[in-house]
Amino acid sequence: MDEQLEIEQEGVGAPAWAAFGDLMAGVLGAFVLVLAAALVGQLDLATQLQAEVQQRLAEQARREALERALAGPLADGRITLVEGRIGINSAVLFATGSDQLHADGRALLKALAAPLKTYLAQRDEILMVSGFTDDRAMVAGMPFADNWQLSAQRALNVTRALLADGLPPDAVFSAAFGSQQPVASNDDAAGRALNRRVEIAPTPRPKRALAASAP
């Protein structure tokens, strides 16, 4: 009788232990999955951080290379270099309301052409020449419809000057911003003078689309 009762008790307890084992196995499996996900997330984060560090180092090297190429004009204050953009006050290049280059402005561009050509030859980049104005409307008698046209013509004439001084045609393009993107307030003369400018910015060359393969 006692032996029969012991067997019955063992029979009752076995399923409970089996269920507990299944539960622990499930918990362990879930823990392994969470741990694996955490490790994958850490690896992705480390990869992302490494890519950001490499990008920052590349940008720093790019700025330093540009500073070395333009050391002369930078030293005498004829140009500025901010975040890789070469800035030239429009008064150095043009008379008020004009798109015709001053002789001194033309000489400055000639001095910039050689180092910029060397810089571009060493890197897969092109130059964007951008024209900017203040927000004052055109005076009657000016040959421009608005600030957009004035900034476009100035950028185009600077681009043509750089091309004439040896920069390859596929390495320079022009853009016009009119009175948009000011760097100072247009409420006073000093701010407006800063906003009337031309910027020359090296930028990555657009990737050429691969030619479609023949059928």
From TrEMBL:
Keywords: Membrane, Transmembrane, Transmembrane helix
Transmembrane spans: 16-40
NCBIfam families assigned to the protein according to its UniProt record, in alphabetical order: PRK09040.1
PROSITE patterns for this protein: OMPA_2
Residues of the OmpA-like domain: 81-206
Pfam families: OmpA (PF00691)
Listed name of the protein: OmpA family protein
Species per Swiss-Prot/TrEMBL record: Roseateles violae
Keyword Hydrolase: no
